Amino acid sequence: MLSKRLMAIADLVDDGSNIIDIGCDHALIDIYLTLNRHVKCIATDISKSSIKVSHDNVEKYDLSDQITLIQTDGLSGINIDNIDTAIISGMGTSTILKILKGYKFNNLIIQSNNNLKSLRFEIIKKGYVITNEEIVYEKGRYYIIIKFCLGRKKYRYIDYFIGPIIRLNKRKMDRNYIQHLLNVYKVMLSKTPKKKIVERLFLNYKIYLLTSIK
Ligand SMILES: C[S@@+](CC[C@H](N)C(=O)[O-])C[C@H]1O[C@@H](n2cnc3c(N)ncnc32)[C@H](O)[C@@H]1O
Question: For a designed S-S bond to 93, which of 22, 66, 115, 158 qualifies (C-beta 3.0 to 4.6 A apart)?
Answer without folding.
Answer: 115
